[in-house]
Amino acid sequence: MKKNIVFIIVCVSVHVFGQVKSSESQFVLDMVFNNPGEAETFSKYTNPEFVKSRGINGMVPQWFVNCAITYDNFQENIIPKDSDTRKWINEKAKVIDAKLATCEEAAMPVYAFTDVFMAPKEIWEKFGDAIGQEEKNHSVLGSEKTEVLRRPSIQNPIVQDLMRAQIAGIFERFPTLDGLVIRFGETYLHDTPYHLGGKPVRQGEGGVEDHVLLLNILRDEICVKRNKKLFYRTWDFGWLHTRPNVYLEITNQLEPHENLVFSIKHTKGDFLRNHAFNPTLGIGNHQQIVEVQCQREYEGKGAHPNYVAKAVIDGFEEYEGRSGMQSLNDLKSNKNFKGVWTWSRGGGWKGPYISNELWIDLNTYVMSQWALNLDTSEESLFFKYAKDVLQLSDKDAQTLRKIALLSTDGVLRGHYSEIAGIHPTWIRDEFMGGLGIDSENKPSVNGKGKLNRNFYSILDKGLVDEVIQEKLEAVSIWKELERLSKSFTSGSLEVRDYIKVSSAYGRIKYEIIYNGWAIMLKGIEGDKNQLYQLKLMKDHIANYRNLWKEFKALTESNLQSATLYKPYAFDLNFKEFHGENGMEKTVNYFEKKTQ
To answer: Residue 6 to residues 13, 26, 44, 276, 368: CA-CA distances in angstroms?
Structure first.
């Protein structure tokens, strides 16, 4: 009852004084993002009643609202009424209606995740070059094919007109929407069979003018005309998203508006540990929210412990000694900071698939509750979750804390490296990469694998043994974590079981990485010297094989275990998102060298 009274008082204070108290964020948003082309993610975070119970004040659903309109406001029957496209649009709109009604019943604000620019194929066929020029040999994601694609340009008048018609159509069809989250950096068509699209803005030359034009259209249509919220994501693979001079050059040409907010990842790049704190945060004249991924796609996707909330709030250990802002605690007093947007689920492709959301729930809980009260310590929120949500005893809560902090250390040393530069996406989603095998069917510095240049650099610098030892240290961390996971006596049987199973999952994963790296690094060392440490390599190969058997047995015999990793390199050019290259192929290559 007390919780309800406090909530009412907060609402009244916002209404009367027109502002949020300095200790709390204006926006605390959450998103469940589905894997492209797959079924919708099953999660409690798609339930607006649950989300609201956590104090989150906005959902960012991936409903494709921009694809659920007919464009009759642009030209009557431009999508013929008897066409498959029109039927699909109408069915999609009905599904969205039902979901919106559920959110409205829970009094949950909705800011729909929206790709620009996408439109039905009939519109592209009709206007052709007026929308954009043909781009040949464009890779089709998830296949080995290429196709001719029209790249839209916001500089083209027809695209501007269609953009305005699209915004109008969205809010005419779904008037209860509270706003839109705009993505321009990536466009995936796996779930929109009757639509085509791509980003209408350039990166680099001409990009500043493109963004200013697009932003002014969106600001006018969403913020000014309709008094709705516009969250403009800056994500674009290393330009607007990461360069302060570009960010300022674009945003300084745009008049601030109370309904306009820029959304920026906390990292200078994707959600990766070896990326710096984003230098575009806290600069300029516009409101900003910070995106935090809680189901880290490069770091297990919730299949094993990976606690990042403390480091996002207080700073990652690898940021120590760096100047400037390094955490949300550094940013929170900045006038531009208006809140946090958690990705409770999603990001990336494929698995591992989880059935228990404990680890992602822990990250999401601490991040969202901190955003609701910026004066609260991360540690106090952690223990509140352990005791109130998981119902752990004081002793077990302390053990969970140790596991969580160990996981942060174990991921850094197991996935990345503090000794040598490592391409961070060598492992991602459910895929474990290796050394790319070249045209002569052997690894080389010029092979296409993400690790090739890194490993040959390690070899040239004489760091092979040191890097292998670092991976062994990671295994020691995960073994200690696994040992602790077996000591819980409080909480539900389900919670205790998942902590234990997921900790074992993490230990096996990183032990595979240790042995796989030892095989590959000692293998290329042997190639160079023409002298292989045969017994050492054979031992690592035997361990590697046995660990995969243990991994498979764990995932098959425990209902709560996440699905299994795959020893292949991630590659969007294949239907299954991997080819033959990867850790397994590289290990097989060096196994032959030992025979």
So the answer is: 11, 16, 24, 37, 17
How far apart are alpha carbons 85 and 465 in whole angstroms?
59
Sign of CA dihedral 480, 486, 492, 498: positive
| CA–CA gap between residue 176 and residue 592 (Å, rounded) | 64
Strands (E), 116-164: 118-120, 132-139, 146-152
Question: For residue 136, what pLDDT is reported?
Answer: 62
For 100-228, strand residue ranges (E) read: 111-115, 118-120, 132-139, 146-152, 179-183, 195-197
Give burial (CB, 10 Å; 0-12/13-18/19+) of 460. Answer: exposed
User: Buried b / exposed e across 578-587, counting CB within 10 Å, b at 16+?
Assistant: bbebbbbbbb
∠ CA 17-20-21 to the nearest 5 degrees?
A: 100
Residue identified by tokens 């059935």 is 355
Q: What structural domains does the chain harbor? A: 26-378 (3.20.20.80), 399-593 (no CATH)
Q: Among 198, 212, 220, which residue's Cα sits nearest to residue 240?
A: 212
Enter the pTM of the model. 0.94
Secondary structure class of 539 (helix, strand, coil):
helix
Residue 289's alpha-carbon distances to 14, 96, 219, 337, in angstroms, are 19, 26, 17, 6
pLDDT tens digits, residue range 447-461? Answer: 889 999 999 999 999
